[in-house]
Amino acid sequence: MRQSDPGATAPPDGLPAVAAYGLTVARGGNEVLRGLSFVVPRGCIVGVLGPSGCGKTTLLRSVVGVQQPTSGHVQVLGHPAGATPLRTRVGYVTQAPSVYADLTVLENLRYFAAALGMRGWRREDAVVRVVKEVDLASYADKLVARLSGGQYSRVSLAVALLNRPDLLVMDEPTVGLDPMVRRELWAVFGRLADEGTTLLVSSHVMDEADRCDRLLLMRSGRLLASADRDTLLGHTGCVDVEEAFMRLVETATAAEARAAQRRAAPPDPLPGLPGLVDQAAAPAAERSFFAVDVPS
Ligand SMILES: Nc1ncnc2c1ncn2[C@@H]1O[C@H](COP(=O)(O)OP(=O)(O)OP(=O)(O)O)[C@@H](O)[C@H]1O
Known about the structure:
Keywords: ATP-binding, Nucleotide-binding. By secondary structure, the chain is an alpha/beta fold.
């Protein structure tokens, strides 16, 4: 099922998992997302990468439907983000702990399954399935308070999987974990994608980009690029995503400085005089990374 070609991953209804257009969000009076447009194809792992404070969580919250946009819109599985039919189809793993430390792993899973309306054998089936899916069996009876960071992350993930979501949204699920545990978690994400789940995962660790089918690179509330890794490296001529990110930041910064200069300059007396030439001559490559969706 897992493929990185958006055309090939089109489901029978032909809709991507997520399609955002002109997504703009203000928080605390500041614009923190600025006109983001992108697509998340189904059955892929899409990484949302960028430095702390660039707007990753806000983007994920907008997809889940808990963050109201000021303009633009987000469609999820063919519905407006947050619509009632999505409640059982979208799983959300937040950055903040969302399971009870004073309950065991199984008690947590049974509690959340019941909260989702599962009863009797259906509830037990779901609990057994997720325990297996995220390899929780060996500490299923342990108190969550006594788990390691990686085990704790698995419990949060298991809760989000109880409903068998079509789209799983995860906010920095590997933050603070050692490389070995991160690798194990990414193996679980890979298995889920292979089985057809779409994963939208934020991270500020650029090397996690290698594990994603597609990337959304962000900076200061804007999308620098939406592309698969190879396309991104090909366009920038860089050898890794971190370097490509820095290249895009430099390009964006230079373009912003030129735009600010143009705004500050007195208006050109006549069209066609030197002040306009600079604008027209801005290299196409430089403009192409702003809020573009680069096909694979
Ligand atoms: N509740 C809030 N009220 C006002 N501003 C907020 C709120 N939450 C976040 N912000 C601001 O929105 C911007 C984007 O924050 P967001 O949490 O989306 O970034 P992030 O990329 O997920 O950061 P991190 O990697 O540190 O989690 C930041 O400037 C932040 O200060």
